[in-house]
């Protein structure tokens, strides 16, 4: 594997999940694999979990880590081919990607959707240009349309907590005061189609994800009906794909104790950060069934597994 851009880069999901669970037992067992290698983390957007867990993963493998918050600190980048650069952008990605490649052995990038132009966001300009012009492997730390490190984390977490029977997993939309990208939901939906699960998506009308991502996954517009007998409830807000970037604060979709009682004692999952008492009631996130902290812990092992595979290949 050269790049980890999407979950399509996972060749055998079962093997990867099992390897990550084993790695979690002895996280320092490959401490020399990354010796004298450097990872560069470029952030065009804020982060807590992705930044620290990817750093931790690299340190567990003995790597050096360089972090740069690009927005506000890096030169503003131009991506267009043949652009006359007489406007705001100071540096072309062609040089930036090649220069960073000289300082690092692996590059990881976070660049969210701007939610202004769907076609532009779904072209994945930032990640795809860095992949094109960098001469080192590139890892997606959440791009405009996907968050594959989060989705791998979610698969690991579900494997750790899954019941004996084939689990029912519900992805539920929930309200949010800001318009959020579809990236986490997209990658989770893609991941669930690769897992042995009875998977359902529930959201209000108008919040359908891209059909090329949901494919044949059932959509249930009645949230309470969707929750019935669920073993896992994965909650995430996303803005509209069809009315691109439109948000909603419809509080009737908030996750409450009453709704969780409809489930089969379901585990509650969320990628975090989450707005308490807007997306989800305190009583749910603070309950014994909430596994969000362990889910966040697994971010390290997802990142470490991806890094290990890249280091072994390159
Ligand atoms: N879940 C996640 O990606 O968290 P951060 O935005 O804090 O990195």
Structure report:
The protein has 314 residues and is α/β, with parallel strands linked by helices. The protein has 2 domains: 7-146 and 299-313, Rossmann fold, CATH 3.40.50.1370; 149-295, Rossmann fold. The chain is built from 13 helices and 11 strands. It has helices at residues 13-25, 49-60, 70-73, 93-103, 118-123, 125-133, 148-161, 183-192, 211-214, 223-227, 257-260, 282-285, 292-313; strands at 38-43, 64-69, 77-78, 91-92, 106-110, 138-140, 168-173, 198-202, 219-220, 232-236, 267-269. The protein has a 5-stranded parallel β-sheet. A 4-stranded parallel β-sheet has the order 2-1-5-6, with helices on both faces. The chain has a two-stranded parallel sheet with strand order 3-4. Strand 10 (232-236), helix 11 (257-260) and strand 11 (267-269) form a beta-alpha-beta unit. Helix 2 crosses helix 13, helix 4 (93-103) packs across helix 6 (125-133) and helix 7 (148-161) crosses helix 8 (183-192). The radius of gyration is 20 Å and the shape is globular. The termini are close together. The model has no long low-confidence stretch (mean pLDDT 97). It binds phosphoric acid mono(formamide)ester.
Summarize the structure.
This protein has helices at 13-25, 49-60, 70-73, 93-103, 118-123, 125-133, 148-161, 183-192, 211-214, 223-227, 257-260, 282-285, 292-313; strands at 38-43, 64-69, 77-78, 91-92, 106-110, 138-140, 168-173, 198-202, 219-220, 232-236, 267-269.
Order of helices and strands: HEHEHEEHEHHEHEHEHEHEHEHH
Q: How large is the count of helical segments?
A: 13
- Give helix % range: 25-40%
Largest sheet: 5 strands, parallel
Radius of gyration, Cα only, in angstroms?
20 Å
What's the domain count?
Answer: 2
Strand order of the largest sheet: 9-8-7-10-11
